[in-house]
Amino acid sequence: MKIYKLRNLTKVLLCGVLLLGAGCKDHLDEAPPSNLTPDNFYTIPDHAEAALAAVYADTRLVYDGSGIFSSTWQMLEAPTGISTTETGQNSDLNNLYGLIYDGNTGHIANYWNGLYRLIAQANLLLDRVPAITPMEEAQKKKILGEAKFLRAWAYFRAVQLWGDVPLITKPQTIESEDFLPSRAPKEEVYNLIVEDLKEAEAAGLPWMDATGRASQAAAKSMLAKVYLTMAGFPLQKGASHYKLAADKAFEVVSYANANPGTINLFPTYLDVHKESTENRLEHIFMIQYNNLVAGNPMENMYPNFKPVTYSGPGGTGSTIPTVAFYNSYESGDLRAKNQEGYFYTTYFTNGTGAEFNLGAPYIFKHFNQISAGAPGLTPTRNNNLNVPVIRYAEVLLIYAEAQNEVSGPNMEAYNALKKVRDRAKLTTPDMGTFNQTSFREAVWRERWYELAYEQITWFDMVRLRKVFNEDTKGFDNFVGHVNKNSNKPLQEKHLLFPLPTPERRNNPNLSPQNPGYPEF
């Protein structure tokens, strides 16, 4: 099993849904489960493991469903302009594509609630686990480090989406002074994120963890990504944080160079979406899925009413690539090659039958052939594919971008960019042909092409204040760029999402609303 390991699957299934401290025990002489509370639950190491499983389980909340033909994760894809929809039944999703969303949009409330539920779980664990005794210190330190990594991940998402957000680090009850918290300055939030990731980095985690738990590589890679973001907008820390990002990413690159069997790029793009390669090599951190608990949430990328899986024509297609973005890939780029890269233009009837033309490009990056079927493969019908959060390809591009900002392109930065392009079967111009500006845009382009449809592009748009132009292959300013999926321009207000209206109604301390959005 790839779901987080306790003593058996039953424990995971039970503990993964516990929010405030009910737990799983082995012996009949312990307190009856109905009497468990946060005060008497955190007493043995198994409780700490169960609580950590619950935090990991909550990483899935921001990927869950958001109404018909839609999922919460689509909030980060629809406004990018590189995807569109074939369905149109979900009004909230349509508003996201059309750049007319507001605080009442369901995806936004779901994303907020998912992140803060994870934060609440992590805070409770971090508050109670230190007092558990007896417990091996190494085990305790590791669990606390993993919880801090997950809390940092949640706060990093929140501060990028909404700017100033409530900064809660202790368990809350209705009697808590900050039960109705106000928003903390974004820099304070980033300071906590960095602190948490440094503690995770020092927690004795393995370099990689094939079970899907946080690792040294995950903590270092996430920290590099945070520094890169802090260097750009809105904090604009500049050169100091580009250097921090470059140095931290290079730690991972150096380890990978010395241990290519542990961290590396996959040899093929098909390996990016195989169950057999999850949590290994290129996949530095993933959100874990297993159909017994929760199936992969990316099936809204299937074509609408085209028989590409065992179940025949299906009603999905609510995130598909725009033809303009697909056509903007360089000639010969393997990532755009049918069924070999990140897209497909033909498939096999009902997964295993005769090949047919889809009539348009669709996203293959999250397509699970083990589940859906392929020639010679009997479909399992259980989509257990994990969702990638950090791939080694991104670490290489973080290093290339950050190092270039420090001192212009050097050979290590050039090699990092070239490694990503080599897998795509593309020729990279000689290093001497680049200056700092041209190398910067070359790396940005590779981020758009390599990391598309992984809920990363929107964050790049916000931190860079730039958007890829499919026609010129250059970059427009964020404000005024016209998204081809809606023919509407991005506005200043879109740099932040609106705070969810239900949260603001419940908590007046969240006022005012982010600029440009209606109060209620």
Concise account of the structure shown:
The chain is mostly helical and 520 residues long.
N- to C-terminal distance:
45 Å
Quickly name the level 1 CATH class of the domain at 41-196 and 474-519.
Mainly Alpha
Helix content: 25-40%
In what range is the share of β-strand residues? 5-15%
SSE string, helices as H and strands as E: HHHEHHHHHHEEHEEHEHHHHEEEEH
Give the C-alpha Rg: 23 Å
Low-confidence stretches: 1-31
Number of helices: 16
The counted number of beta strands is: 10
Q: What structural class do the secondary elements suggest?
A: mainly alpha
- Outline, from the CA principal axes? globular
Strand order of the largest sheet: 1-3
InterPro entries: SusD-like_N, SusD_RagB_dom, TPR-like_helical_dom_sf
Family: Belongs to the SusD family.
Protein name: RagB/SusD family nutrient uptake outer membrane protein
Keywords: Cell outer membrane, Membrane, Signal
